[in-house]
Amino acid sequence: MSRTNSMAEPENPTPWRDWLEEHGGKLLLFARQQTRRAGDAEDVLQEALVKLAKKVESGEFVGGQEAWMPFLYTQIRRESIDLGRRNDRRKKREDAVVGDELIGETGTEGWFEGSGYEDERRVMLEAALKELPKKFSEVIVMKIWGGRTFAEIGEILEISMNTAASRYRYGVEALRKQLAGARIRGDL
Amino acid sequence: MDLELKQFEEELERLAPAGLPEGLISRMESAMAGWEDAVPAMDEKVVPFPKVEVESRGGFSRGFWSAAAAVALLGAVVALVLPNQTAEKKVAASDAVPEFAAVSFAPTKLDRNIIQAADGGVVFTADERPHRLVRVEYVDRIKFRNAAGEELHVEKPSVNFVLIPVETD
pLDDT tens track of chain B, all 169 residues? Predict the structure, then answer.
């Protein structure tokens, strides 16, 4: 894969562009699920992609293109954990707690496309996913929208395949219950 | 996985993650193309704030006053709790403590029967552990009897919610 020195313009796309257009959305969704802010999601995604590019173009990457996605999911997760630690240390140091988890920092862009799905339900689903404990929502995101198998998810999260499957099952059940509750309350 | 859950899963699969906007694709593209120029994120150095020394006051320290207050409080409690040994107790005949009246009915039997137990789905506790919520409907039946052999039956329906931890790891 060749490298270009100039800033990529839409008229002169790099070989990465097509791949980003096809897979970028899934990775961004995972990065958003892992981080607490939209800006952080884009940053960790970029870090992970740069690492991939470095390994691929320097010949260090083991495996074919089918191994890129598991590699990127692992990197996004690690970058998110590191970023979370750096942010926590900064917060402690400044002795200020910023309630930025869900206030304006997530931006106006939704996690999902709206086509073929009621907007309200899509927004409720996104909110319900954010409320799920992280170790359950990350499995759901990787399985349903990332197309990963439980074996791959287990490797990425360093857990057993059975644990991945359990977390998925209970996470989906909790998600369904939360949305059903919203319907009963008249939110949907 | 039951049918309802499977249908919900299929519903989720019909959703598509939002694609990368053009600006973000260009940003990622140029970052990947310029990977050699990328500087890895470094751990920030933690610089502690300088400690502010609390000036010590002259005379007795705060610890001394705390101890004195504790002793004073203990003394007050003891004075209240222990009886006054020197005071004479004068109890008039009219002040004698009357006998308590015998209880009319006394419980003789208690039964608890579960009417219904329903699965309330999975919930997460504050420590993010999944639990299965079970709604249990039951009725307590209590039988009372008095000295004359008369019986009184009381039924008390109740609902309890039970959290059963589920193992995922």
Answer: 588 888 999 989 988 999 999 999 999 999 998 888 876 655 555 555 666 655 555 555 666 666 666 666 666 655 555 555 444 444 444 455 555 555 689 999 999 999 999 998 898 988 889 999 999 999 999 999 999 999 999 999 999 999 999 988 7
Q: Which residues of B touch A90 (CB under 8 A)?
A: 44
Using a CB–CB cutoff of 8 Å, tell me whether A122 touches chain B: yes
Residue B17 with chain A: CB contacts under 8 Å: 25-26, 28-29, 111-113, 145
CATH architecture of A113-188: Orthogonal Bundle (1.10)
Is the complex ipTM higher than 0.85?
Answer: no
In chain A, where are the structural domains located? 13-109, 113-188
Chain A (7-46) residues lying within 8 Å, Cβ to Cβ, of chain B: 7-10, 13-14, 16-17, 20-21, 24-26, 28-29, 42, 45-46
Integer CA distances (angstroms), A85 to A172, A176, B44, B148, in order: 28, 31, 11, 75
Q: Is residue B138 part of a domain?
A: yes
What is the pTM assigned to this prediction?
0.68
Q: Which of B16, B39, B13, B32 is nearest to A19 (CA)?
A: B32
> Which structural domain range is residue B132 located in?
110-165
Distance from CA of B138 to the nearest CA of A (A): 24
Number of domains in chain B: 1
